[in-house]
Amino acid sequence: MDRNHLYRYCEHCEEFISARTFLRHKEAYYDDHTRIWSKDCQSVPSTSEDEGDDGGAIQLNSGSDNSEGLSDDEMDNSTAELQATEDCLEVEVDDGEVWEGVNVSEIEGRFSSFVAQMTTIFPTSIIGLHSCLNVNSNDFRRLVSCPKCHTLYEFEKCFVDKAKMIPKVCSFSKFPNHPHRSRRQHCGSQLLRAVVTKDGDHKFYPLKVYCYKPLIESLQTLLSKPGVLNSCEHWRERKIPKDTLCDIYDGKIWEEFQYVNGSAFLAAPHNIGLMMNVDWFTPFKHTPYSVGAVYLSVMNLPRSKRFLKENMILFGLIPGPNEPPLNINSYLEPLVEELKVLWSEGMVINMPDNPGQQVHLKAGLLCVACDIPAARKVCGFLGHMAKLGCSKCTKEFHINCETGHACFGCFDDGEDESPLRNESDHREQADLASMQTTQAARDRIESQYGSRFTALMLLEYFDCVRFHIVDPMHNLFLGTAKHIMKNVWLDDIEPIIPKRFHAMMQEKVDKCETPSSMGRIPHKIASSFSSFTADQWKTWTMVFSMYALHGVLEQEHLECWYLFVQACNILVSPMLKIHDAMEGHKLLLQFCKQFQRLYGKDKVTPNMHMHMHILNCILDYGPVYAFWLFSFERYNGILGSYRTNNRSIEVQLMRHFVQEMEIGKLHIRDENYTAHSIVQELDQTAAVVGTLNDMLAQNSNSHLEIQTASRLPACEVNRMIWHCLEPYDLVM
């Protein structure tokens, strides 16, 4: 790099000048003892490089090597210092502009000289910044997915002859032992598409890509953050009154997994339990394209930290545009293989608070939190419209001969007497179904028992029946509350609440004054409750509904609804007693019976049957705040908000999320400082200390130090940045 292209800010001239001139001015006008620049001395002639500067902007000429006025020793020292500065900074100014057309003098005019000098050191693009910070947005793996059967392949294995670039088709056979040879054929779907480049070359790209980030790598990154591993041990210090449920640690599952087969699991230090969520979302507003996300969270973390973005693990993105119809076993297989290793062998974590010390820990999947359709696909059950459509019990739903749909009523027949499913029978029935050699035989066995095989059965400790929960968000609010309001009381044919009352209910709600912590007040009641979110249904049900419906509904309808509201207020609580949970269960049962009597069995939904299993989920996992899906649904919105170019959607979404997680590693250790306070103090410090180069030359107290878990980049530019920014102790 030409030395004449290096500029430094001079306090005497109050503008950027060449580095050689800056050294001469510093010798003439700068007092090393007082660290003050003087403007009273006689001006030192500037070199030809600085002549003709207009308004402080940097102008370059042919750049002659002006060295008049310097002795040989001074010249040698100046050249050495200049070269050292060049090697460190490597700042090249082009056409008098720095940072994409921002004039350096304009920056200096708005901020301090310290900040202005920093603009010549930091990268000038986002890509350059990510490179300096070692942010790798492609730090995940990709597998080719068959568009028809969802079988996964590595890209290198998708060719018959890779040298000749001959792609192959899907070789999966669903029934390889079918008695008829013609039914043993392979899937045969195309895996890759050919693209002809401008040069006439052929390149192949997958039709569908499954992106996933290995679980062990994600856990090592998460648990290596300062304070996370210690936070995972805080639950051992809790003191909770007897028969009180405050968090997931008070449930039966957590207690039963303290010791497994006589060996300590959760009772042993640092071992962790995992919660998984699988859900689908649409990344586009007006396009029917659905992408599946597989999330995991660490159950050991306190509830206040468990679902924070920096503590959430996005394992994989299931490619769209449609959901897999019956199961997602192929997409769960990479996760299951890692879970088996974590259960049997464990992994090693470097202690962030004690460098050089390592911790060996194990992990297990102890909870699957999904809505009803996803829970059926993940845990191996038939859909909720099947004859044995309940994943918790063996109750048979009789088919209505007139409509052809299952009847979910019969609460008066003793709902609590339905026998619960057990894991051993579920595994046997699923294995029996998977052993069938024809589709008809498999369908018959699955319909008979309501079970099918899932990849999670390969985990010896996993209980498909108990380990999946009934989500209160979907079940109570998006399910029953929404169904009653929109499909029963506001029915288009025989509405119980006429439209003339809608505006009156809205007016009553608008007059209420509620604390901000209660959430958004429903504002679409007048338009027949259109586009209500889950949180709005919750607020409407538990807070406003009884007041708004008073005088609108007949007494018997209002009494039925009051039973449901009472049950929700008891069960949907951050903490509750076991006897309170049982009381809420009784109220739900009374509500279901009253609803069936008032509106008939045909109006009873699968969600109302699943109300009867919420109690067992609370006893197993604690209050609903510990496992409901409000937190996971938030991340669907985050992923759906990322911008893409409508090509390789899953890859781009994964890049965005991984990039944010990588940047999230850079955090402020001292909670007393914020980003605003950092900039403010840097601005104040510049007036006393001087420019960034002065700070380095004087070896002053550091102002911001960035440390990396791995080795620092070799570039000396980064070394200077890390050294000059110190007191806030940013950690990557």
Structure report:
It is a single chain. The protein has 732 residues and is an alpha+beta fold. The chain is built from 25 helices and 24 strands. The strands form nine sheets. A seven-stranded mixed β-sheet has the order 6-5-11-17-16-15-20, sandwiched between helices. Strands 22-24-23 form a three-stranded mixed β-sheet. A two-stranded antiparallel ribbon has the order 1-2. Strand 13 (259-260) and strand 14 form a beta hairpin. The longest helix has 22 residues, at 578-599.
Roughly how many Å apart are the termini?
31 Å
Reported for the largest beta sheet, the result is:
7 strands, mixed
Beta-strand residue fraction: 5-15%
Q: What is the share of helical residues?
A: 25-40%
E-strand count: 24
Mean pLDDT: 79
What is the alpha-carbon Rg in Å? 33 Å
Number of helices: 25
Shape: globular
**What is the structural class?**
alpha+beta
Strands across the major sheet, in which order? 6-5-11-17-16-15-20
Q: Low-confidence segments, ≥5 residues, pLDDT <50?
A: 1-5, 42-102, 673-680, 685-693, 695-732
